[in-house]
Structure prediction request, 616 residues.
Amino acid sequence: MCGIVGYVGKHKAVSILIEGLNRLEYRGYDSAGVAIQQNGRIEVAKKAGRVANLAREAAKHHFTGTAGISHTRWATHGGVTDANAHPHLSSDDKIALVHNGVVENYDAIKRFLLAKGYTFKSETDTEVLTNLVAYHYTKETTVEGESRFLEAVRKTLYHVEGTYGIAVLCSDFPGEIVAARKGSPLILGVGQDENIIASDVSALVSRTQRVVYLKDGEIVHVTARDFSITTLDQADVSPVIDKVTWSIESAEMGAHAHFMEKEIFEQATALENAMRGRFSEDGSTANFGGLNLNAADFRAIDRFVFCSCGSAWHACLVAEHLIERFARVPVEVDYASEFRYRNSPLDPHSLFFVISQSGETIDTLAALREAKRKGYKVMAICNGVGSTIAREADGGIYQHAGPEIGVASTKAFTSQLLISAMFALYVARMRDMSFSDGVHYVNALKATPDLVRRTLEQAPRIREIAKRYAKYNDFLFLGRLSLFPIALEGALKLKEISYIHAEGYPAAEMKHGPIALISEECPSVFFVPKGEIFNKLVSSMQEIKARKGKIIAIVTEGCELPPGLADEIIPIPDCHEATLPVIATVPVQLLSYYIAVERGCDVDKPRNLAKSVTVE
Ligand code: M6R
Prediction:
């Protein structure tokens, strides 16, 4: 949510900042702006709308400065206007600031500043923060050896309640940026005679692969050739420089029309990456190096608690199904946003898991912290290498799915499903699952990427179906057992990128209410895998058909439906129960994608959304 880029070096800052914002636009796209230091002052260009609008506006300024900060916004306080766009300038024009997060006590601070004569042009909490830095900057310095600029930022942050990732310029300190974080991600890219601040690696990886992941409560003071990190309490921090392992090409669209399409088609590779090096030598179970728990620890666990948001929460529901089904260990799933305030009772033999693509979702992070406070050991299944969740968890499993740029999660989601299936196997093999069942399961996992490739071959057929169904404004997605969460995921995909109302339901539960929605105008997407409930699913489909509902059926190859029951059939390959959720997800991703394209929607940047939700 909100993207920040800051640059200080020997090149013109504006083009580097705008390139960075383009890569970060998926974090927020309500408005964008830059502030550049030049000629002893700070000049700002900002515009409501996309980064392209800002680029046109910035061109009029003929910026030449080599230090600047920039921002792409997802609105929290104040509407989507030029005035509310970041960066914000202080009343005295000395301080410019960009911010990701929410200042909860902004009203009290604003009243204090108004009384001191500061004026405000926007409705944002960020402008309050900017003027508070300006206020402290006018005060006497009290910290020996520290620049007045850095001291002003530090003093400001003492007074801030809420969350922030900020980058700040001061007109009296050319070539310097001060940045800090609490609850919102911020990364320093260490370059050759240049340094970059960004809220996401993708904004800086084209210039450097050497990064420092800042921690909450840290402030970094950056010049072109140097940087120093301290805590809010002025303790020096020895930086750890990590190397980013992916290249800029993996965050580019290539020949695809959208990142979402690219990422759907990357899924087989993402699954291979999730499995690489994670099977035992005897081929009967999975191995996870990063869990930091031994087999005895695992055997002592009598319950798992999974917490997440959005698609990752759907992955938790699949994990629940698979762990209970194969390992026979009880699993509880909670929304992270609920868990954090719910005060759920602690069970000392429980293991707490969070699942997060970004590793920065604020509710998931808060749930993790709450669980740790309560004494749980916390594991994370996470794609964001070096992310806050990955760092704060006691152990975890990296997804290695590569950067996911499309706001709608696709490859990260199926990779979470596969890792959940691997984890269910791991726990099951420590308990009752036999060696031969383990080998069979492992072989099924290894076959999944090829089955996904085969399912992707249905894309042309699904595109044709999408053309016929894009006109409808209501959909039901219906599935049972491990495919109920995939029904939820299908509905979420469709609503988030094409703004069509869609609901996911357990197929048999449909007759307890949602069946009232059924008409010729409300199609249902049915998951109909082979297995013991096949006939039950057929009965549910009959109930829909009897009410003139159209049906798109996702059916295991070789399974015969009664003639005329489904209006459209999308075949999926026969597969192991543990990998069925992965395979069944692919058609609903494609269906949602093609419907959104057919309706002319902005697939990668759907309205009101942002890729990682770093505010509450
Ligand atoms: O980065 P995370 O996995 O923690 O994100 C969780 C949700 O915000 C995310 O899955 C969201 O629901 C996606 N837009 C779904 O496509």
Summary: The chain has three domains: 3-250, 253-456, 457-602. Residues 309-312, 356-358, 361, 364, 407-409, 492, 496, 612-613 surround 5-amino-5-deoxy-1-O-phosphono-D-mannitol (CB under 6 Å). Residues 435-456 form the longest helix (22 residues). The mean pLDDT is 93.
